[in-house]
């Protein structure tokens, strides 16, 4: 059965223009900032170790499913295969990175997914999940090559995985009160106003700590308010170095979108990024590309804004 798909074009400003916008905005939130347009480094190498070299070639965002599939009541039938999702966004041979819910049939429980997959005939899966173990601790796992699925929701950036020009964002010592991703998104929203812009890619927490959550197994009671959600989630202070897979879009664009979503992992930890907790020493390095389209796949029929932070 094919999934319902909607898509809309996004505004595509020159990378040099975006870099200038972000340089000015991030200087208000970080003591040291450098935003430039560079040749994308080979992301298959350390420290990223992703499954394709770059973020270029037909770049696009997709918002699949959504939090309303998880709460107030979980819909366990909402299962997706990222290889099929690549076809749904008109890029069957894609390099996909992003943040979503892990494939619970393969993992055994609910989990946080860090998607890192090349689809098509040369499929390669480098995805990880973070789950809560029997002791209540966060446990990081590399998914088996065959586990290319996800459940409930996924925010993904897809491209041909080619080398090319991208944005490099370097920021150190946070002086403002918003996280890196939100600062980037709000800067673009402020400058471009009604023109929706989307970015996707990866960033590193080079130094410092970050507040991250990991979903435990599915709640046995309905999650109906923010207090319920925060009581159910498990929060952790995670230490650099960590690699995050990240998407953001400035406006809802009439598609009921999650505006930003980043999941990441280190040597023995992983989860959903909220913000850094060590502003005096924090350091980030990010590589993003501008998306040409936003796809909305399997939009929930009944929606809400709970649990989207």
Structural class: mainly beta
Query: Main β-sheet: number of strands, strand sense, barrel status?
Result: 10 strands, mixed
Question: Any idea of the CATH topology?
Answer: 60s Ribosomal Protein L30, Chain: A
End-to-end CA span: 31 Å
The assigned CATH architecture is: 2-Layer Sandwich
Portion in beta strands: 35-45%
Q: How many domain units?
A: 1
Portion of residues in helices?
Answer: 10-25%
The CATH class turns out to be Alpha Beta
Topology, number of strands: 19
Low-pLDDT residue spans? none
- Gyration radius, rounded: 18 Å
Q: What best-fitting shape do the alpha-carbon axes yield?
A: globular
- What order do the helices and strands follow? EHEEEHEHEEEEEEHEEHEEEEEE
Can you tell me the CATH superfamily?
Hypothetical protein, similar to alpha- acetolactate decarboxylase, domain 2
Q: How many helical stretches? A: 5
Q: Averaging pLDDT over every residue, what do you get? A: 97
Describe the model:
- The chain is mainly beta.
- The chain has a single domain, classed as Hypothetical protein, similar to alpha- acetolactate decarboxylase, domain 2 (60s Ribosomal Protein L30, Chain: A, 2-Layer Sandwich), CATH 3.30.1330.
- It contains five helices and 19 strands.
- Strands 1, 3, 4, 5, 6, 7, 8, 9, 10 and 19 form a ten-stranded mixed sheet that branches. A nine-stranded antiparallel sheet has the order 2-11-18-12-15-16-17-13-14.
- Strand 8 and strand 9 form a beta hairpin.
- It is globular.
- The two termini are 31 Å apart.
- The mean pLDDT is 97.
């Amino acid at each position: 059965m094919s999934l319902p798909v909607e898509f809309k074009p996004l505004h595509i400003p020159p990378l040099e223009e975006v870099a200038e916008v972000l340089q000015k905005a991030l200087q208000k939130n970080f003591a040291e900032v450098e935003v430039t347009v560079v040749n994308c480094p080979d992301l298959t190498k350390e420290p990223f170790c992703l499954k394709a070299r770059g973020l270029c070639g037909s770049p696009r965002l997709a918002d699949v499913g959504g939090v309303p599939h998880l709460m107030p009541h979980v819909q366990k039938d909402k299962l997706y295969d990222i290889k099929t999702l690549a076809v749904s966004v008109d890029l069957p041979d894609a390099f996909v990175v992003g943040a979503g819910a892990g494939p619970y049939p393969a993992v055994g429980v609910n989990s946080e997914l860090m998607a890192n997959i090349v689809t098509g005939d040369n499929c390669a899966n480098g995805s990880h999940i973070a789950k809560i173990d029997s002791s209540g601790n966060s446990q990081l796992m590399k998914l088996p090559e065959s586990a290319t699925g996800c459940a409930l929701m996924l925010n993904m950036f897809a491209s041909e995985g080619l080398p090319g020009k991208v944005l490099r964002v370097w920021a150190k010592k946070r002086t403002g009160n918003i996280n890196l991703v939100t600062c980037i998104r709000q800067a673009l929203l402020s400058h471009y106003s009604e023109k929706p812009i989307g970015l996707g890619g990866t960033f590193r927490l080079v130094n410092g700590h970050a507040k991250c959550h990991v979903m435990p197994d599915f709640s046995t009671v309905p999650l109906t308010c923010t207090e319920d959600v925060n009581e159910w989630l498990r929060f952790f202070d995670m230490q650099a170095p960590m690699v995050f897979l990240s998407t953001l879009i400035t406006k809802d664009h009439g598609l009921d979108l999650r505006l930003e979503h980043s999941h990441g992992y280190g040597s023995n930890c992983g989860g959903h990024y909220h913000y850094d907790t060590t502003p005096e020493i924090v350091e980030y390095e990010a590589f993003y590309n501008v998306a040409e389209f936003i796809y909305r796949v399997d939009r929930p029929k009944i929606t809400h804004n709970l649990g989207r932070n």
